[in-house]
């Protein structure tokens, strides 16, 4: 079979033997595979990442000198069952799968470990227990987005965003856009999206963001006024003292009223901010600019060392949460949301290439104006993705 091999930062299309499914594994014929920002990063920076993951106990991530096949966002067709499979999904079934593979040495990350070559290839292996038939005739293109959409679903769930909470998405690359889609599909009424790139802002609008802005022109933190967010220390002190004064006018102990209010969930209003950029300085800029009590969900993967001032986050009693991946249930639910049309990620897909076009696609993805998500179709001969004619839904809602 043909596969894109990454070694020493070079991408080459080479012949490889078809993988043979081991116990509980299934060989699938790849229909589509998304090119992920983490693949772009891993092409040149996988050693730092491998070192870090080894420090957390997983030392089987590929090294730059290995012959690695990327690809962890895929859909495919069942081609062959390994021994011990239940075979609930017969040969020919369109499926997606979590990118994890159980081997004799343990569980490996598909597309990031040489022990589990990914889907930048005509065939790849999946774990039958983590494989799911694609329901409702959902197309292979959108099905391949189950993985990144599940990342977004997990991030949104970890953000615990109420429908009336203001959600602010910093960075509208594929993951930021996926977060916007998942926020809107979970009924969040006000989603603010911020990105320097006009194309990405257009896509954010197409994904349903209510306010889309250029952070060079407007602050995302003050774009939706009148929501009771506390912008500075004096307003927090005022809230505390004034609440105490008001409750003091009640005919019973103010502490009973305060305790009851806490039990009913009363708390200072705050936005939930999704950091979807992942470069040094982002957390610091959010800590500096965001309102008091903000909850920050860090989705963007910054591999380098970063710094911020904890005292500033303390001043604002910010809540910093870091997220990774998803559970098998979140993955399954995401697939069904896509298949039922509850969320439509098709605006994200800006191009498709064959295996020979992967190198060009990587170059194009380095420019945020050109593309968002490029899919690989291993059966296609397209060697260069079409430049997206006009980004869909180029309506940019005016910032408030
Ligand atoms: Zn990914």
How many E strands? 17
> What is the CA-based Rg, rounded?
23 Å
Structure ligands = zinc ion
| Oligomeric status | single chain
Distance between the amino and carboxyl termini: 53 Å
DSSP helical segment count: 11
Which residues form runs of ≥5 with pLDDT under 50? 393-400
Main β-sheet description: 7 strands, mixed
Q: Which bin fits the share of residues in helices?
A: 25-40%
Strand content range:
15-25%
Tell me the structural class. Answer: alpha/beta
Indicate the mean pLDDT. Answer: 94
Helix-strand topology string: EEEHEEEEEEHHEHEHEHHEHEHEHEHE
How would the global form be characterised?
elongated
Protein described:
The protein has 400 residues and is of the alpha/beta class. It is 29% helix and 21% strand. It has 11 helices and 17 strands. The chain has helices at 37-55, 140-143, 146-159, 174-185, 198-206, 233-247, 254-263, 282-289, 310-315, 328-339, 358-365; strands at 2-7, 10-15, 25-34, 74-81, 94-97, 100-103, 106-109, 123-127, 131-133, 166-170, 190-194, 211-213, 272-275, 295-298, 319-322, 349-353, 373-376. Strands 3, 4, 5, 8, 9, 16 and 17 form a 7-stranded mixed β-sheet that branches. The chain has a 6-stranded parallel β-sheet with strand order 12-11-10-13-14-15, sandwiched between helices. Strand 6 and strand 7 (106-109) form a beta hairpin. The chain binds zinc ion (ZN). Zinc ion binds next to loops. Zinc ion is lined by residues 36, 38, 72-73, 148.
